[in-house]
Design brief:
Layout lengths: L4 H61 L1
Length: 66
Amino acid sequence: MNDTPLHRDTERMNRLRAQAYAEAEALRRAALDDVWRGADAALTSAASTALRAARRLAQRLQRRRA
């Protein structure tokens, strides 16, 4: 094939670009995983706080009726 310095440089640039795209995709996936982990933790915390409050309210109402 064509083995000129320009051709080799173009091939090198294509490999570097492909590598950069692959690394960017891996970083995007890791960032999305972090976002979902954080959202899950926040929802779990909020849900457990709401559940605790609901149980306390139910106990108070039960005591008030008695």
